[in-house]
From TrEMBL:
<dbReference type="InterPro" id="IPR011991">
    <property type="entry name" value="ArsR-like_HTH"/>
</dbReference>
<keyword id="KW-0805">Transcription regulation</keyword>
<dbReference type="GO" id="GO:0006355">
    <property type="term" value="P:regulation of DNA-templated transcription"/>
</dbReference>
<dbReference type="InterPro" id="IPR011008">
    <property type="entry name" value="Dimeric_a/b-barrel"/>
</dbReference>
<dbReference type="InterPro" id="IPR036388">
    <property type="entry name" value="WH-like_DNA-bd_sf"/>
</dbReference>
<keyword id="KW-0804">Transcription</keyword>
<feature type="domain" description="HTH asnC-type">
    <location>
        <begin position="1"/>
        <end position="59"/>
    </location>
</feature>
<dbReference type="Pfam" id="PF13412">
    <property type="entry name" value="HTH_24"/>
</dbReference>
<dbReference type="Pfam" id="PF01037">
    <property type="entry name" value="AsnC_trans_reg"/>
</dbReference>
<dbReference type="InterPro" id="IPR036390">
    <property type="entry name" value="WH_DNA-bd_sf"/>
</dbReference>
<dbReference type="GO" id="GO:0005829">
    <property type="term" value="C:cytosol"/>
</dbReference>
<dbReference type="InterPro" id="IPR019888">
    <property type="entry name" value="Tscrpt_reg_AsnC-like"/>
</dbReference>
<dbReference type="InterPro" id="IPR019887">
    <property type="entry name" value="Tscrpt_reg_AsnC/Lrp_C"/>
</dbReference>
<keyword id="KW-0238">DNA-binding</keyword>
<protein>
    <submittedName>
        <fullName>Leucine-responsive regulatory protein</fullName>
    </submittedName>
</protein>
<dbReference type="GO" id="GO:0043200">
    <property type="term" value="P:response to amino acid"/>
</dbReference>
<dbReference type="InterPro" id="IPR000485">
    <property type="entry name" value="AsnC-type_HTH_dom"/>
</dbReference>
Amino acid sequence: MDRKILSLLQEDASLSLDQIADRVGASKTPVWNRIRKLREAGVIRRQVAILDPEALGLEACFFVLIRTSEHDKDWAARFLKALRDRPEVIEAHRLAGDIDYILKVQVKNARAYDRFYQSLIGEVKIHNVTALLSMEEIKATSALPIPEAGR
């Protein structure tokens, strides 16, 4: 039942308790209890609305590859703060391999990206930055693959 509930909530978190219970074939009370336990266990972290960037005028998505020659704690703390302070950065990952970090940056246009870039390099020292403009989003989802029982 948990996997069914999670699949439904990932697809549409605005479903009512009645709708979820109906779709999983259970009554409201056990469904509510399962959802509460999934929240308490941290499986469900939060529920959000997913907005359309283009409807908000944020038509340019850049993937930013960052290499740094700095690896000390002070630099990392400044860098992480700089990323967290910038709402344009909608994802940031520290990587293994030749690239140290990858950012997903959503902005209005190339000029807005340049302002972001200039601001970032003015705040923290970065060895090399490569920005890749996404020409077309082919797949984007927030839904995680839910493992089968016993996996």
